Amino acid sequence: MTSRGYRPRRYSLTAGAARGAERRFQLAGLARHQINKVFPWHFSFLWGELALYSFVVLLGSGILLTLFYVPSMDEVIYQGSYAPTYGLEASRAWVSVMQISVDVHGGLFLRQLHHWAALIFLAAIMLHMARIFFTGAYRAPREINWFIGVAMLVVAIFEGYLGYSMLDDLLSGTGVRIFSGILLSIPVIGTWLHWMVFESAYPGEIYIERFFIAHVLLLPGILLALIAVHLAVVWYQKHTHFKGPRARESNVVGNRTLPVFAMHSITMLLITTGVLGLLAGVAQINPIFHWGPYNPTQVSNGSQPDWYALWLIGSLKLFPPTDISVGGEYTIPGGFFSGVMIPLVLILLLFAWPLIDRLRDPDRELHNVLDRPRDAPQRTAIGAMALALFGVLTLAGTDDVSATVLSIPLEPLRWVERGAVFVLPPLVYLVTRRLCERLQRSDREALSGGIATGILERPVDGAYRSVQQPFVGVDADGGEHDPEYDGARVPKTPTPQRLRGES
Amino acid sequence: MSEDGSTPSERDLDRMDVRELGRLGAHLDDVEVVDDSPRHEPGGPGERRAIRRVAAWFVLSVLGAIGFVVVYVLWPWQYTSTGPQETLRSWFTPMLGITFAISVLALAMGLLEWSKTVAPPDVAIQQRHDGPSPPVAQRTFAARTVEILEQTGLRRSKLLRRTVLAAGTAFAGILAVTALGSLIRNPWRSEGPAPLVTTEWHSPDGERTYLRMDTGDPHSVTLVRPEDMVPGGLLTVFPFRESMRGDPEKLSKILRSADSSVILLRFAPGTPVVEQIGQEDFNLGGLYAYSKICTHMGCPVSLFEQTTLRILCPCHQTEFQANEYARAVFGPGARPLPQLPLAVDERGYLYAPHDFIEPVGPGFWSREPRG
Ligand code: HEM
Ligand code: FES
């Protein structure tokens, strides 16, 4: 660089604009602070960004779809150009979605883009949540973002459900029927709640209009607001990082906002958009022209909701038949437990996890350095246990299809699943815990005994011995000491340079 | 921002170049830049090569975009069901996706390459400032809060505290009533019988309600005679009254009614049958009619297994034993399918003397008849 001093040029458009903004808002110090902000990098930090950018795609494609979708349950005759359903009676909602799929230029691409973005959005949220859980990122001072996060997860599930329920095809109508049944099952106020949503017995004449407003206005608004707060909190509290050569509790190591972090983040936005676009083009999703319009007296066999709702179906399926009579006069249907209480309790446990964690762990420190999952065996095992339960319920949700495909009888399968709900999670807990402890030991062994190099040497006594590459700890002032495990990843492959120096 | 006392003077600033000023800014922001060495000699051959690679990605991105627009505008996309056009048309959406992805992903790759081969690694360390605010902020804030409570009189007057709380709650209350009030309907108040406990099989004025099958034409009416049913046969039927004839909309709508569809079965002679107590006369010989609406969550049951005589719900696979008053024998459903009484009129057509004697479909709190 030159040694000449630097001053902003006096006469240029940008300099003029900057001076103008400065005079009005005093931005220089503020803006510099933000573009100098440091963000750590780890692949697992990308799940949150994936969720964010799928949401961006959802908003964009969704706005375009609203220009064509008609939220109406009026019955009309389909007269679009798709021959197989020509002349069928259907709601205007279904007909408008048919129009988007068949008669709007590029409409099918938009619809599939929107649906794929929804599926990926929910997958990204769950992966993101898993990384927050398994690394302990929810601990103080970040509990608030965990609470906001679980709220967003619940809103996102409802958002997705409402989205595919609006199409009024044979598949989605079945889903609404089940929702109606779950509402009705709630003791005392169930029928009143049902009338609040449907204005009548199922199906009534208004739910599609209401679902539409909730889907395009209410829930996206809530999500937007929550995402804004969520990201503001991440920004303000500074992101966590993994232990590394320079990373401490007291600092954050990474790239500054500009240019590198922004370049990577925009890359992530583009990759998300590009991959979703590819899926939208080549992977058919929710072909309502195959399902046909909804008819409450029909149902297609093996109808499946979107993947993130399967665990709820699993709960409905596995719960034993129960109709509890209250004083011989009132009924609590089993669906209340499987459709309301079980999901509610699971979600509440998830929501309260940072608080539950405090019962288990007396640690009240603030944490900016993440745990490696193996270093918190109990927490990791609890998480794996929860995933196992989610997995069993999800598989149960789709077991009618797997039973048909694999041609296994459904009834014994159901009993196996019911057993698995109780047996598998504790088993997974034990196995995960042991696994974590083994991994910890292998780290400690590598640190004290060195890494196996794969080289054999034969000293004078004649016995072969394998050569280990030892670790050396280096202090801040350059002195060497015996290595100690400090929560950073322990390399398990030898470094060639040092090997050469030592052998 | 930490100003560490040694803020440089205007004269010092004049002497600093871009890099020094950048470092100073970072320092003021508690950032120590560990590595921002350029990847290549600026303007040198290494950087020129790197930039050419980045540019190649961006060119590909533009080509992809052009491809996308060309496909969008020129590719045949209008629906046809036959001919060679059909294959071409079916490739419209995939081609859109492919060109879209090429354009966007090439842009992403260019950006990534740019950040990795031209922009510096930019490894930086920023200090965090965890923990509470400095004591002066805490004390002054707390004091000011107390002062405000004093000044407003809230600290002194219990009456003020209580009434303002009450008024605030009342305000929240009227907001809630305004928001939710419009949505609340009484499910038990409606013209005519309560919809939760009656179906279209209920005849308001005593007119006979016949069994009608769905022929595919929503406006034609075909009634059912016992002889139409072969043993082991199953038919979905809907309610029909002569007074509906003049109402094409009603005729069509009832075929999609959510609570009135019924399955009609005829058991082969000799099939052992167990009847529900109190409903021993609902069947007509081997003919039995059950609500089609699953008592679990309301899906239409739609499969009949001839060998086991079980009716199967496709939603959560509850199985109902057809020859044992359709009681639930497997899966999550608990209650039997309600049975519809059957009779035959003088012309030989099947009709239902009265509605189901219990609510059909999913259970709810007050489904037991009261009184
Ligand atoms: C709508 C869905 C969500 C979006 C768009 C979103 C977005 C993000 C983003 C972009 C970050 C920063 C990058 C990262 O760490 O991945 C982040 C951080 C965080 N998120 Fe989310 N998130 C969502 C849902 C959730 C959920 C369901 C949870 C947990 C239950 C959660 C908890 C957190 C926490 C605790 C942080 C701070 C992480 C740290 O500093 O290490 N988020 N979120
Ligand atoms: S609705 Fe029939 S089994 Fe659930």
TrEMBL record, chain A:
Record key words, sorted: Membrane, Transmembrane, Transmembrane helix
Biased composition (Basic and acidic residues): 478-489
Region span, Disordered: 471-503
Cofactor annotation: heme
Source organism superkingdom: Bacteria
Catalytic activity: a quinol + 2 Fe(III)-[cytochrome c](out) = a quinone + 2 Fe(II)-[cytochrome c](out) + 2 H(+)(out)
PANTHER family linked: CYTOCHROME B
Name listed for the protein in its UniProt record: Cytochrome bc1 complex cytochrome b subunit
Source organism: Actinomycetospora cinnamomea
UniProtKB/TrEMBL annotation, chain B:
This protein's UniProt keywords: 2Fe-2S, Cell membrane, Disulfide bond, Electron transport, Iron, Iron-sulfur, Membrane, Metal-binding, Oxidoreductase, Respiratory chain, Transmembrane, Transmembrane helix, Transport
The keyword Isomerase is assigned to this record: no
Membrane topology: Multi-pass membrane protein
InterPro entries assigned: QcrA_N, Rieske_2Fe-2S, Rieske_2Fe-2S_sf, Rieske_Fe-S_prot
Annotated localization: Cell membrane
GO molecular function: 2 iron, 2 sulfur cluster binding; metal ion binding; monooxygenase activity; oxidoreductase activity, acting on paired donors, with incorporation or reduction of molecular oxygen
GO cellular component terms given for this protein: plasma membrane
Major site of localization recorded for this protein: membrane
Keyword Membrane attributed: yes
CDD domains, per database record: Rieske
Chain segments annotated as transmembrane: 54-75, 95-112, 164-184
Residue ranges of every copy of the Rieske domain listed in the record: 259-351
Similarity remark: Belongs to the Rieske iron-sulfur protein family.
Function: Iron-sulfur subunit of the cytochrome bc1 complex, an essential component of the respiratory electron transport chain required for ATP synthesis. The bc1 complex catalyzes the oxidation of menaquinol and the reduction of cytochrome c in the respiratory chain. The bc1 complex operates through a Q-cycle mechanism that couples electron transfer to generation of the proton gradient that drives ATP synthesis.
Protein name: Cytochrome bc1 complex Rieske iron-sulfur subunit
Species of origin: Actinomycetospora cinnamomea
Organismal lineage: Bacteria, Bacillati, Actinomycetota, Actinomycetes, Pseudonocardiales
